[in-house]
Write a structure and sequence with these properties.
The chain is mostly helical and 74 residues long. It has one domain. The protein is built from 5 helices and no strands.
């Protein structure tokens, strides 16, 4: 997971510095692990639906997953 990678690479301190430089603005940082873990599929739908209805969006999915099972969600 990205949080583990950030602990063991130069990108971790860089991410912390960017959060500081931008005053914690969520557009430029990733949320703390506790907050990220609390999100649900319904949260994602509420966040993405308005953008998908009125505009275009590219979504990249990476990792191990089964296309058939993933497409059943939508």
């Amino acid at each position: 997971m990205i949080y583990q990678q950030l602990k063991h690479s130069a990108a971790g301190p860089q991410q912390e510095m960017e959060a500081w430089l931008y005053g914690g603005d969520s557009r430029f940082t990733i949320p703390p692990m506790e907050k990220f873990s609390s999100y649900t599929i319904d949260d994602a739908k509420k966040w993405l639906t308005p953008e998908l209805v009125k505009g275009y969006m590219e979504l990249s999915i990476v990792g191990d997953f089964e296309i058939e099972k993933s497409s059943l969600i939508y």
